[in-house]
Amino acid sequence: xxxxxxxxxxxxxxxxxxxxxxxxxxxxxxxxxxxxxxxxxxxxxxxxxxxxxxxxxxxxxxxxxxxxxxxxxxxxxxxxxxxxxxxxxxxxxxxxxxxxxxxxxxxxxxxxx
Amino acid sequence: xxxxxxxxxxxxxxxxxxxxxxxxxxxxxxxxxxxxxxxxxxxxxxxxxxxxxxxxxxxxxxxxxxxxxxxxxxxxxxxxxxxxxxxxxxxxxxxxxxxxxxxxxxxxxxxx
Lengths: 113, 112
Prior knowledge:
The complex is a heterodimer.
Chain A: E1 5-7, E2 10-13, E3 19-24, E4 29-37, E5 44-49, E6 55-58, E7 61-65, E8 71-76, E9 85-93, E10 102-103, E11 107-111
Parallel strand pairs in A: 2-11
Antiparallel strand pairs in A: 1-3, 3-8, 4-5, 4-9, 6-7, 7-8, 9-10, 9-11
Chain B: E1 4-7, E2 10-13, E3 19-25, E4 31-37, E5 43-49, E6 56-57, E7 65-68, E8 74-78, E9 87-94, E10 101-103, E11 107-111
Parallel strand pairs in B: 2-11
Antiparallel strand pairs in B: 1-3, 3-8, 4-5, 4-9, 5-6, 7-8, 9-10, 9-11
């Protein structure tokens, strides 16, 4: 099936560092969603993007819808311990009228002690 | 403020046993989904239901069956569990007219 390439697969960071992750595809999307999964829980929506070039923030998180419509980026500023978890991107293809989502494999964020 | 509720949270099965994973949502959504999550592979769609009375296969349907019992409930059944079905299973429902999905807390299944 369709694939989203999400990178990096995992990140070890120091508390206070900024974090960047991205998702890319060879296909064009009309929606990008970013979810976070805490350990032992289900994914929870962080940010939704609907227009090419759109830049949206949610607290210390900022996500962008790439202008080519084939990628999206998530940045976390000044990371804190509760940021640990798995971050997923998901997108809806522009030709999909059924609202189906294509999922990235996730970026696991680990904070160094 | 329940959202999507999944039961059980944990389950251990022996190879060949059967079981049904339950999912219910209280948001009056038409569309519901079952995913499995395996390390490094993200979320893979097993089955979905666009509305009460309809179900469709997703990316990895083999070994599973589903029932959309009513608008609230969407169950996933393993008729003869296999070790390859050891995974974390998530149910989700989708807001009508949009693509945002809301997830349950998951069922962690081990098949020995």
